[in-house]
Amino acid sequence: MKIMAVKFLPFLFFLFVSSATACDRCVHQSKVAYFSSASALQSGACGYGDLAIGFNGGRLAAAIPSFYKQGAGCGACYQIRCKDSTLCSKEGTTVIVTDLNTNNQTDFVISSRAFMAMANKGKAKDVLKLGIAEVEYKRVPCDYKSKNLAIRVEESSRKPNYLAISFLYQGGQTEIVAVDVAQVGSSSWNFMSQNHGAIWDTSRVPTGALQFRFVVTAGYDGKWNWAKSVLPADWKNGVIYDTGLQITDIAQEACSPCDDGNWKLH
């Protein structure tokens, strides 16, 4: 599958800079609470719906607005570990953002499965009793190994006049900040708008099989990725289609250097 990189468009550059001000790859100190069930995050603001429960073994998170990034932060991965060394491991756990956290007492609200995954062996129930844990965390690359980036046609799509999609299994440490769609073989591209969360849509749907190009943050800039043939002419709602691409870029942040790769020990 061909991947095309071009100079980042100026207006997208400003979007990238604004989304990077959170410096989420730095190590942060905060608190984390949990939902009693991962299913509580299924109807999250990112719009993943029932699929969310199967992500990352159910280790899911609702993130504060500066990390949710008006939906651009959906699907981002964070490593979280609690500071109580008698109960928690140095490795902690990795969560995927599927929702927006509006609780101003904690940076994340995570699933109970993720909360217990921070524990030392045999201490999961004791960690759960904490309710709210003192933690440190940082953003880390998502690793889906053999899975390619995929596009799901949302149930709200209405052929031929409306198409809504979401991106799944986005690896690396990046954000998608622009999406275009065109008929396969055509150079007439229509931009898609970010509807909410991870959902992109358009009411100008090309006919026939569809190709996509999208900008991901990469380095201190960004690049276009081109999936030349993704949706067949008879695309269907609710179906997940493989783009044939793997995203592995690690975006840099326009903030003070902080990512030295080291975590302080307990």
UniProtKB/TrEMBL annotation:
<feature type="domain" description="Expansin-like CBD">
    <location>
        <begin position="161"/>
        <end position="243"/>
    </location>
</feature>
<feature type="domain" description="Expansin-like EG45">
    <location>
        <begin position="43"/>
        <end position="147"/>
    </location>
</feature>
<dbReference type="InterPro" id="IPR009009">
    <property type="entry name" value="RlpA-like_DPBB"/>
</dbReference>
<dbReference type="Pfam" id="PF03330">
    <property type="entry name" value="DPBB_1"/>
</dbReference>
<dbReference type="GO" id="GO:0005576">
    <property type="term" value="C:extracellular region"/>
</dbReference>
<keyword id="KW-0964">Secreted</keyword>
<protein>
    <submittedName>
        <fullName>Expansin-like A2</fullName>
    </submittedName>
</protein>
<dbReference type="InterPro" id="IPR036749">
    <property type="entry name" value="Expansin_CBD_sf"/>
</dbReference>
<dbReference type="InterPro" id="IPR007112">
    <property type="entry name" value="Expansin/allergen_DPBB_dom"/>
</dbReference>
<dbReference type="InterPro" id="IPR007117">
    <property type="entry name" value="Expansin_CBD"/>
</dbReference>
<dbReference type="InterPro" id="IPR036908">
    <property type="entry name" value="RlpA-like_sf"/>
</dbReference>
<dbReference type="GO" id="GO:0009653">
    <property type="term" value="P:anatomical structure morphogenesis"/>
</dbReference>
<comment type="similarity">
    <text>Belongs to the expansin family.</text>
</comment>
<keyword id="KW-0732">Signal</keyword>
<dbReference type="InterPro" id="IPR005795">
    <property type="entry name" value="LolPI"/>
</dbReference>
<dbReference type="InterPro" id="IPR007118">
    <property type="entry name" value="Expan_Lol_pI"/>
</dbReference>
<feature type="signal peptide">
    <location>
        <begin position="1"/>
        <end position="22"/>
    </location>
</feature>
<dbReference type="Pfam" id="PF01357">
    <property type="entry name" value="Expansin_C"/>
</dbReference>
